[in-house]
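== Fold encoding ==
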Amino acid sequence: MDAHLKETRIDGELAYDGHFLKVQRDRIKLPNGAETGREFIKHPGAVVILPLLDDGRVLLERQFRYPLDRVFIELPAGKIDPGEESLACAKRELEEETGYSASEWHYLTTIHNAIAYSDEYLDIFLARGLQAGEVKLDEGEFIETITATPEEMLDWVRTGRITDVKTIIGAFWLERINSGAWKLG
């Protein structure tokens, strides 16, 4: 059905093998038979957590992001470890980064945030029934937690205070769930 759009890998190599990221360089055949190259970042996948406090506020993080040299407001998230299930990763990351655990978890969706240059995917989970605990940040990780109402969060998206794509998508999912337009599975 999509054969007229499909690109086929001929061969390739790992062009860069870093601690966190790997860059793949492939030679491919285009649908018209021509050959060209593709480079992309290989990523093990990640999770995003949309943590809701009992009063309806969203638990968010403020974290400095080196590539853009600024602090961003984000939903808790983290990289999936080898052999780790997405839900287990979400539970681990929520506790490590915020100190909270949750008694209720709902898988919402999977997003692909950088399809032109990465195979990264993010599984998004809604977490409710939050219980405060002790933060267990990784070495070299510095995070501040804040809260916002869903309305504040959407306003921060509108005004550009929140620009992180996973957090924007989480805000829109929450708006749809809260309005009753989308039901939890």
Summary: The first helix runs from residue 86 to 98. DSSP finds three helices and ten strands in the chain. The beta strands are 8-17, 22-29, 35-42, 46-51, 58-65, 70-74, 77-79, 101-111, 122-131, 143-148. The mean pLDDT is 96.
